[in-house]
Fold these 2 entries.
Entry 1:
Amino acid sequence: MQRTREEMEKDLYLTRRRTGHFRSSFTAFQQWLGYRERLELLQKLEDLKPSPSLEDLRDVEHLYPPIARSQSNPVPPVNPIHRAFKKADLSLRSPKPVVHTPLLSRLRATLDQQSAEIDARIRPRRPSLPESLPAQDEAEVDELLRKKGVISKCVREQVGDHDLVKLRPGQWLNDEIINFYGQMLLCRADEGKENRDAGLLDIHYFSTFFWTKLKDMGYEKGRLAKWTKKFDLFSKDIILIPVNHNNSHWTCAAINFRKKRIESYDSMNMDRTSVYKHLRAYLDAEHRNKKKQPFDFEGWVDWNLEDTPQQENGYDCGVFTCQFLESLSRGEESFAFTQENMPYLRRRMIWEIGHTRLRVDS
């Protein structure tokens, strides 16, 4: 007897709960699954369309040495349910742990404890994020949500009341929120240039419109050379880029000059081939424009952090993206937040926007 889709979803949900890969409700899981199917369909349709900027991407094989391409994700299979079932089945079929003698168990426990103590001294565990803001700050957030008109301004960016409500639970963030957040990152980096001991990097943030121009028009037609007339892109530690995929999903990308990496951080773990491809083409075109020679990609890799935090719904991608950007601006190599922290982080972002000041609780 053939099982219904809901029965398959229920079994998959229970399996992922048992293996610790999903902690939200079954309703949230169904929403997440539908969201992923939509993203994969849009991605397939996008791959079938010829790019308007194809002329900028034809002769770029030299940008992809074999060692760099090997770190890119493969194209995902068509059906996410079947793929997830296959992964869960492999996990459940893995060899059972070996039963140790009491003496060996005690020895293993002692060694594990020693390793944990050494690891804690070398890499101290960061404190977990709080569940809420201090009471006074929570009251200020409620007051900000009641305000009308322009809420806050930061250089050329501003957020109005119709933008701020996007940070209420269950809302998809818009360009105004993300660009305002990026501008705050830029301001903080500029203020900290004389105090690099604070852990802040010399960054540049490209607005959400950068990726759209690069992908849809290319370097020349998008006139992207003008975006860097007032500074040397190659002198920065890291370039931060929010990416809007088909107006349906936000991710974070970065050009990390310190680590020689083209980075992509996706809270839905979708295929990143297009991100790496376009950013490599951009980096080469920008170097040819400003330095009059091809960019040297020797030692550069396409970077994908295996344990990138993952969302468990269809609307928190923008919040994940902002937090990826914020962590990267401080030189972090991992992320201290998860899906469980999203309600708190939305409230914190409202406070930060209202005060035009970033706060770090991790």
Entry 2:
Amino acid sequence: MRIIILTTLAMIAFASNSVLARMALKHTDIDAASFTAIRLISGAIVLLLVVRISNRPSSGSGSWWSAAALFAYAAGFSFAYVSLPTATGALLLFGAVQVTMIVYGFWAGERLLKLQLAGLALAFGGLLLLFLPGLSTTPPVASSLLMLGAGICWGVYSLRGRSAGNPVHTSAGNFTRAVAFAVVLSFFMLSRLSLDVAGIWYAIISGALTSGLGYVVWYMVLPMLKATNAAVIQLSVPVIAAVGGVVFLGEFITLRLVLASAAILGGIALVIVRKPSAQVTRQNIGKHFNAK
């Protein structure tokens, strides 16, 4: 029961990031750069407090390369949600993360079975369905590319974190470093600076609770789950985000989105449910992405 509760809380936290970002960037006047900076600062503060309270020996302090990937994800995520619906954004983000990790596993030595190749084809078919031209529900291309880029960056960040020591300590170091990038971005975006009290609170909640504490909860439960189970469980995040978009933002779930989601998430599920040579892949990933 403890594992179920913690896992559910972590998935709700991850999905809430999409809902909070969309609420802030659609219904308040805060600009995307400020939302990104406040989110990263809040996350860094919470993670540093957790590290201090835990009083455990440090085994990883992050790296500038990982921080750059984290910042690129957070910035792309924020700017994409200026115009993307919650469910579509979460689907593109999650799909890009999983495909990035699957492709890297293949490059690092893992070989896919025919069923897994069919799953990849199904997932890409769902992506094409989502962007079929001529329909009013087609998501904005520029924002969609930003979200796909954010997902790739988050996939890279996750791969680098596999061999970077204690995940909470490492995350605290990466968030702290990423703040520097966010400050630079805010400086270049001063002409578009726009702050809003509600938007600031959404960013703080996103950074401190659904990002900072959400990662801590996920790292607590992750050792208790099989790798495949953990990957499949994350398929629930876009679904939860879609429900949040309907409840809190009054968004509509279209038939095209339902079909595309089924194809993308179903295809990814076919790939990650059975991964041959998992041990070899983990060793290769650790070798190639060791965070110094």
